[in-house]
Amino acid sequence: MKRNPNSPWNPANICDVTPAEYEQQVFEWLQTDQTKIEYLEITRLEKLSGSGGEYEIDCVARFEVFHGAKITIIIECKRYTRPVEREKVLALYSKMLDVGAQKAMMFSTSGFQMGAIEYSKDKAIALITFIQGDWLYENRSMFPDAIPPSYLRFPKYAGIYNYMDKSLGGKTVNNERKSPITEFLLE
């Protein structure tokens, strides 16, 4: 696990993923546990209008809870070479308010700056770093570039749901563990 020396909660290298794989994996993670969600619809590249104009949103998730309460979540997927800055999260928050969505999510192949994570804390925005699955491998070796043993099975891709409580925290997301996304959707 090589960490970014300037922001050690982020990987040193961006995730090597094609745009199609990236979008498909995010779409699969959004197909969450539907035992508490009565209706879930996810669209890609949807145009939503607000008082500031029309926005093309990477994904829009709509679902119902409590027998009819409708929730809309806008989702942006960023493929940058450096961690996402607070200004991008601020812009997402503005879009969320403008189009009348209740929540927002941002996925990034390069992680997030601390200011972005801190800003999202009380804004109903989830920030998820999209990583190669083997980045989850940690060891206490004196060789920092140790390769995971072949008997360990890591997913091809995983996510780290970054959040601020009293300090920075992260929860792993993958196809077998979507609960951080489900919890965010329902909180």
Low-confidence stretches: none
What is the number of strand segments?
7
Strand content: 25-35%
CATH architecture: 3-Layer(aba) Sandwich
Radius of gyration: 17 Å
Order of helices and strands, N to C? HEEEHEHEEEH
First-residue to last-residue Cα separation: 31 Å
Instruction: Estimate the global geometry from the Cα principal axes.
Output: globular
CATH class call: Alpha Beta
Task: Summarize the main sheet.
Answer: 7 strands, mixed
Strand order of the largest sheet: 1-2-3-4-5-6-7
Mean pLDDT across all residues, rounded?
A: 83
Helix fraction, binned, reads 10-25%
The count of helical stretches stands at 4
CATH third-tier fold name: Trna Endonuclease, Chain: A, domain 1
Class inferred from helices and paired strands: alpha/beta
What number of domains? 1
